[in-house]
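> Could you send the Pyridoxal phosphate homeostasis protein prediction when you get a chance?

Sure thing. Input:
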Amino acid sequence: MTIAENLNLIKQNLPDNVTLVAVSKTKPVADLMEAYNAGQRVFGENKIQEMTEKWQQMPKDIEWHMIGHVQSNKVKYMVPYVKLIHGVDSLKLLKEINRQAVRWRKTINCLLQIHIAEEETKFGLNEKELDELLNSEEFKSFTNIKVVGLMGMATFTDNQTQIKREFDHLKAIFDTYKQLDTPNLKLETLSMGMSGDYQLAIACGSTMVRIGSSIFGSR
Ligand SMILES: *Cc1c(COP(=O)(O)O)cnc(C)c1O
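Output:
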């Protein structure tokens, strides 16, 4: 199957309200161009340098999403062009994103990453940390960021019941905070689901799926 065929197959079964992020990390520009020529305009990368190199080489009507863990000292490199940062998991990082966004006179859209998996290794805030962050005076003082949603990754397991429980948990948190509407907080996007679990994620309420290997092949 070609990249275009893989994409079309996935898109056929995607509800209208779900955005497909084509996760192109480690893949060459030629592969991304094949997806682009098949109509794909949203790409996800997890390393800033790689994303910047691809941004320079690719057409400029692409939305670039940073889906990986972000270090504060790297924020300045992507602020000029990044459309959405998925993995924001601290006030410190938000502060730096805001600082760089002010410098560029931009507003940067962010998703807060929530820790829903059992694994210790995955990044993300727990519910208490999320609550503290959103209620802090410092967060309210940020003028150039907008938290537009939440992101999470389920445990890497074949146990569908467990994955569903984790997705349901994230959806419940999303629904709790969805009602809030302040200048820099309005949850509209729920980013959950990857190649192995995106259909389940959509059934649980995902509005944005991040799919790599099912489009571009294994890495
Ligand atoms: C790599 C990655 C994906 C895509 O994973 P696939 O299993 O290849 O679809 C999605 N989200 C994040 C955060 C990733 O790092």
